[in-house]
Amino acid sequence: MSSLKQFIRNVRAAKTIADERAVIQKESAAIRASFREEGHDHSIRRNNVAKLLYLFTLGERTHFGQVECLKLLASPRFADKRLGHLATSLLLDEKQEVLTLVTNSLKNDLSHSNQYVVGLALCTLGNIASDEMSRDLFPEIENLISTANPYIRRKAALCAMRICRKVPDLQEHFIEKATALLSDRNHGVLLCGLTLVTSLCEADEEEGGEEGMVEKFRAFVPGLVKTLKGLSTSGYAPEHDVTGITDPFLQVKLLRLLRVLAVGDAHTSEQINDILAQVATNTDSSKNVGNSILYEAVLTILDIEADSGLRVLGVNILGKFLTNRDNNVRYVALNTLIKVVAIEPNAVQRHRNTILECLRDPDISIRRRALDLSFTLINESNVRVLIRELLAFLEVADNEFKPTMTSQIGIAADKYAPNKRWHFDTMLRVLSLAGNYVKEQILSSFVRLIATTQELQTYAVQKLYTNLKKDITQESLTQAGAWCIGEYGDALLKGGQYEEEELVQEVKEGDVVDLFSLILNSSYATQVTTEYIVTALMKLSTRFSEASQVEKVRRILQTHQTSLDVEVQQRAVEYGNLFAFDQVRRGVLEKMPPPQIKEESRVLGRAPSKKAKNANRKSKILKPTEQDLLDIMDSPAAIAAPTNGSQATNSDLLADILGGGSPAPPTSGSPGPQQSNISSIMDLFGPGPTASTPSPAPASAGLDILSSATSSPPPQQPQSPAAQGQWLPCYNANDLNVTMQIQRNAAGLIQAVARFHNTGSVPLSGAGLQAAVPKTQKLQLLPIASEEIGPGSETTQVMRVSGCKGPLRLRLRIAFSHPAAGQVVDQDLHEVRLSRIDQVNERVRLFRLDLVAGPIKFLPGQWLDTYIPGVSKAGGFTITSAPSAALTNTSPYLELAVQESPENEPAAWLWRPEREILGETLRVRVGGKFVFPPAGGAPKKVVFVAGGVGVNPLMSMLSYIAEGNGQGVGDVRFIYASKLPRSGKLSDIVFLDRITSLFGEDKVKGEVKLFVTAAGNAVSQETTASINGALVEVRPRRLTMGDVEAAIGDREDQGTVVYVCGPPTMTDELVEKLAAVVDPQRVLTERWW
What we know:
By secondary structure, this protein is an alpha+beta fold. It contains 41 helices and 26 strands. This is Gamma-adaptin. One of its GO terms (biological process) is intracellular protein transport.
């Protein structure tokens, strides 16, 4: 058999992929054959495993050599062990089944007399440890951290860091050991100790600081500061010196840990201010080693609550980095300054010239970062200077920069322009330099600027015409010019002064037509550009006075009536026909009124408002609706009377064609209970009521088709032309998606088409739509095309409304039958009365909601959209009671369990003092798809996995099964993970008494396992407790994937379904891992905020 060197030579000598594959296959076969021979020399085994490592680096399969790695591990020879540990670390991972055989070998090596063997075992354990292996071997690591040998202590500390990341429950075993390492005099041990402590603190912060790691280690800040001070002021130490700086690695680790400990704590920040100033001032920045320390010091300064002077010092260090010749240093400085500019804008502004110099750097990554930083520096005082520099860079910039640059310059000009003239000139320059890279939003903003600034229009049209004559290659410039010339062609033809010292040359009608004709016949006339120019020419036909030019325009339009592009062809044909109706043509093509600019329609847009975190159900919340389709035909109509006036003007004609109308005045005040039903019908295209909740509908649609009867009607808006023909979302739940398309003709007749789309995998039946309109209008509702909607199929229903002079206002009610949900009328709101409040523990309340109007149907696991008087948002809370409680004819009710959450308005209202809210009337609607039984019917075995208040939907499901509704469910495994309440009593854990009673009374067959965290001494060891007659296994630790796998049992059993509900971190991890264990379709999950 060839040696490793010869094998590598043979692979490298292969001239084709096929030759290389042949060499590898031949050698792999030889290695397999050698492994099958018993008793061969240990050097042959080492040679074979070394070849496997080379095959691994080539990406080849090496699974057949895993057992040989274990044999090398078990060998008494150091050479064998060294290669065996390396191969085990690379060729095995925690998912390999053979890993269970490694545990014993590692345990033996961890107690070996040779320190290097122990070091190899620690490295291997840190690299491949699984949860089980970590739990089995952590006592050995705990002992090795305390050994006198510094080499082993270093390795053990790093191994402890790895297994604590893998199994967070083991952190508490290493806190005391890690504390001892912080005072170790050996630099290597201290470095590893700092790494361990930093990892423990960061991991705890990611989990929300439950264990209080940061607070525990803050007591050691003075000692850490003293150590850092000694390193930064010490003289030459040959054993730790790196290019003249004492142990820079240790200094960086100290600074990082100090940053972690000081974030968010003013006292700790004050303790480390002086040492940070000392490090930042005294560290040599001429060498890369010093720069690494300075960079870590700057990050610490900027993250903690440092005083302003210290932050300015940090920014100045980054500014000095920008002059460094090393590209990496400059890149790091630019990247950090982008984050800093929001904290210390004035300090960063001082380095503006240096940043702008970086725009000319040969390295593209430096240029990109400098460009991003330059845009963040723009403000009212420097916008002229910076935009001028950026325009100069735009002229020579790579094409990949131009889309971003044009957008950013447009945003900056829109936000900080000193005047409209400067704004226009800047954007015109952008269109001239990079018109092919301008996004549609920027172009729209530019056109809107011209349309809304009357004093700028003559100047704008003349400048655009002049620039367009010079260059027709820039698409956005051509489109903006075409729109402006078409709209304000009369101002262009009149001429006038567009610069103080220069009169514009006279423009003739023929020149304009010739220019547009030139563009249309060039290769630069894209489809959109052609549409712009065709429309502009049509507008000019009403601006021109020469009949010959109007005829020329008509002929140009006629040539495009045979265009291959349907859109262009349609426009040309319609425009051509308009020439036969001269009066209508002039009315339709009048100048457009200036658009009203709302804050949200600006280029920059409003700053996105951050949604408050909701401690309860993360759910899709629909708009509140009426309880029933009310009889509005007998109620007085709250419709504005039509305006009496003279004959319609051209503007009125245009508004009528586009479907607009005069907006009705908004209703002031909040309507009382006796208010006319008609006032609560929603304007289909108007803004939503202030008491509504976020809807899945896109914001651009402006749809709010349903409204709560108790909320004030919104101001009515005229129907937008953009809404014509769009499919607007109306309803999306229970596998049914309903959208509506509205069409209005000039006579005011409206046709609305409702499209029903079955998004699920089961057929829906009895689908239909009911609608109501004000009594001043007539509604013709045609039958639905098909009441049966198969999976993935669609059907439609048409309605026609006449007599609608303004915006269309409808109330809809959608009904259908779902195989699992039964008869669904999900648009209904149900009135409930808050009749009882129980305090379960310090963080959870239980609410009983009596149904005022009688029984309702819901599926176990569904939630309630809960509408509270005076609260603008609806709360999403799971129903915890069984469906039977809401179906009884005597006192039907719903039950909710709500966790305290002050930032969530509905939850905060429900946590007000009992005397303030008891007896209040609320309105609720049922929703949700996380239900039992699943679509395929009741399973044989159910595994419920609950985390915290994630138990709520599972409680309803378990109650449903206990009532005998889960026919066929023979085995229920309930796994419940929860923090122990402050009382220290298991009985105060939400629903634990109710769950155990169902199992103890033998209403449900199976077992309950409880995993308790933050238990302290209350639950210190694993035990089996009898609670309400049920045996409950209590584990004082976090829930693991292994626990869920054990509950599932046979992976191949298709009759097992797993329900997972809890915090996102828990559900995401479990669902991802369960995908490798069971069919993902048998895993149902619900995430919580």
